[in-house]
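pasting for ref
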Amino acid sequence: MFPNYFKYLNITPVEERWGMYVTSVGYSKIEPHDHYPNQQHPQSHELTWNRGRILNDFYLVFISKGKGVYASALTEPSDIIAGNCFFLYPGVLHRYKPDSKSGWEEYWVGLNGFYVEQLMQNGFFDSQNPITYIGLDKDILVLFRELIEITRASLPGYPQQIAGIALRILGLVNEISHHRQYSNDPVGKLIAKARFIIQESFENTLDVEKLAEELPMGYSSFRKAFKQITGESPHQYHLNLRLNRAKELLNSTLLNINEVADQTGFESVFYFSKLFKNKTGVSPKAFRAQAQSANDSEHSA
């Protein structure tokens, strides 16, 4: 399970000169009937439905599960469902909350800088229509997870890295909401939903029959359609997600091999190391050494 997490960042003149900087990132899972919010935020960011809140930065919130409601000084209250994202604008009173019966899962990023302001002023996003449906797009989920993991690791230079990821998120939201044509193929939509569900909990054991029921779709039809569309069986797709995530952790964090195996859902470090070497040709330790050597060569060039 992806753990609840948030961080508010201190902004230096370096980030301001960069033109785009991240002020906050986070993820929160709100169970049905939970108090909302269920994390203790700074007083400047406290949110209640009755009082609302005004922030100084731009925020993008993505709801990956559940449903709720959103309202602002510029808009009437609107229903929010899984697959919606919405913007919060500086100086604009807003409020939102999950439905008490369903709860929800939310990802967010706060950002600012003259480049962000330019994007907003040039009409790429509309403060009068802050809610958009982007669907259960696995790419947006991957980017938010990457944003959080890099922030959590806080390695040198990470503020510029996460600013780049935030820009990719904005670009993806703009593309989906304005340009991408959704397929009318109902099976294709179900497989897209399945890929999102697998991506969201790739560290957990995959139960293909349960997943097919959740879509809903017949088990054999699901397996056949999944492979036709992705080129891989559900289990192979799931395994490759784990291995690719392990490569990212080995390359960009200081986690030891045991911790990498644990965070990617492998039952033992022995099984992880054996499978990793079978798939990549090198052990996790050797992969990390090669990646570090390549990074050192690039920086010294």
